Amino acid sequence: MLESGCEGAGELAEQWARVRGRLRTEVGEAAFRSWLKPLTLVGDRDGVVRMAVPTRFMRDWVSGNYADRIRALWKSENPTVGGVEIVVAPPAQKTAASQDAGPMDSDQPREPAPNGAAQTAPAPAPSERAHGTAGSAANDSGLYETPESGGFDDISAPLDPRFTFENFVVGKPNELAYAAARRVGEADAVPFNPLFLYGGVGLGKTHLMHAIAWHIRARSPRKKIIYLSAEKFMYQFVRALRTKNTMAFKEQFRSVDVLMIDDVQFIGGREATQEEFFHTFNALVDQNRQVVISADKSPSDLEGVEERMRSRLGWGLVADIHPTTYELRLSILQAKAEEMGVAIPAKVTEFLAHKITSNVRELEGALNRIVAHATLVGRSITLETTQDVLHDVLRANDRRVTIEEIQKKVAQHYNVRVSDMSSARRARAVARPRQVAMYLAKQLTARSLPEIGRKFGGRDHTTVMHAVRKVDELRATDAAFAEDVDLLKRMLEG
Ligand SMILES: Nc1ncnc2c1ncn2[C@@H]1O[C@H](COP(=O)(O)OP(=O)(O)OP(=O)(O)O)[C@@H](O)[C@H]1O
């Protein structure tokens, strides 16, 4: 219930909704969201309208910068209003008063702090403030930040519910990054700061960051976590500069328990943002708050990033995610197929794991496509339909291995000279490895038969065709030979 003197509560709330609307138009969306959106109506008494904000810092700012305007707007709505008072209400109380939508978004007036003692409540310290119950309530809905945080909800990106530790398939290429991420998610004290995850596109950096956040959220729902891309960080900063709200910006970032910045390579070359990022980073690390960073390169290789920043980024634990191996790709496919509840023949998963070597995102995309296709046309998944549906992706992935690499690997394996791949020698000891290399060139690259022939000492395309047939025949009749060739193939595919 609103503490209401001269006005009915409903009427006051309606007036407040109009005041808010006009404030929003006057100050602009950015400033409104940062400063005025968190304001909630408590009530009025003796001609003074009382509104609450969640922190003392915010109260000072709003009182110093907007009080006159707020008073004037109130007066124009209701001439009996003689003044306004901005008070601090701790987040829990404010939640009761406002939940996530401000009165403007609602037809109903909201409950004030239960004991009506909002104005006497001390302003909590930044980290305490971060721990309000409103935070947990908001985060239960899957959104990442809290309505009481004065713009946090605007800053942190939502988390993908699929990106958990349980859904992350661990293999040699990512085991260090996974172990480090788990440690950060599970540890009570900050284990290393920052955790710097790096690796190529689509290899699971974002997945691991979200998994850390989910895990911390589950263990300590009151912790304030911000996850966002470096680009969004820059955008927020530039916006804060433009609207002269850098204080709010700093306050928001420096009061978190865990800060996660994805794709930090994009921060390179932008000095003012880098500077701000550096200060934010230092402030958090100094306060022993966990920082997690991801990038496509190691700290020392980040281009356009100042030396002091690069060195600081490498102070904690630097964990890289390597390109996937065949085994990891196969496990990921099997796990995803199971998750989707579809039966996929082993032949198909093996084929995909062999062929789609670029990254996990593409692998997932390929799987989704074949499953969608099979569902649509109502037929089961076979190797043929897979090849058909994915011909474009498969071709793009084929270009990874060069014929030269194949020749080198095969020569090494059979202990012959690389030059024998192009020589005219016909002895079985060199002719067979040459045929295997031709076969693999056909399998692993997008080169045509004549092109392959040319690379093998200018041989005719029929010779290559013969080699491919011969190797196929031998594979079918000689298990040891087949195993040999498969091993080579796997090694070449990385
Ligand atoms: N080991 C893994 N197990 C399960 N899924 C994975 C694994 N690695 C990556 N993925 C999946 O692959 C997709 C791409 O991963 P993610 O977005 O985390 O990549 P990234 O490294 O952040 O890429 P970018 O550099 O483009 O941001 C996601 O759907 C993710 O769930």
TrEMBL record:
InterPro entries on file: AAA+_ATPase, Chromosome_initiator_DnaA, Chromosome_initiator_DnaA-like, Chromosome_initiator_DnaA_CS, DnaA_C, DnaA_dom, DnaA_N_dom, DnaA_N_sf
SMART domains: AAA, Bac_DnaA_C
Residue ranges of every copy of the Chromosomal replication initiator DnaA C-terminal domain listed in the record: 402-471
HAMAP family cross-referenced by the UniProt entry: DnaA_bact
Record comment regarding domains: Domain I is involved in oligomerization and binding regulators, domain II is flexibile and of varying length in different bacteria, domain III forms the AAA+ region, while domain IV binds dsDNA.
Gene name of the encoded protein: dnaA
Keyword Nucleus: no
Entry protein name: Chromosomal replication initiator protein DnaA
Gene3D superfamilies: 1.10.1750.10, 1.10.8.60, 3.30.300.180, P-loop containing nucleotide triphosphate hydrolases (3.40.50.300)
Single annotated GO MF: ATP binding
Signal peptide: none
Region annotated Disordered, chain positions: 93-151
Annotated localization: Cytoplasm
Chain ranges of the AAA+ ATPase domain: 191-319
Gene Ontology cellular component annotations, sorted alphabetically: cytoplasm; plasma membrane
Domain I, interacts with DnaA modulators, as annotated region: 1-118
Top-rank lineage group of the source organism: Bacteria
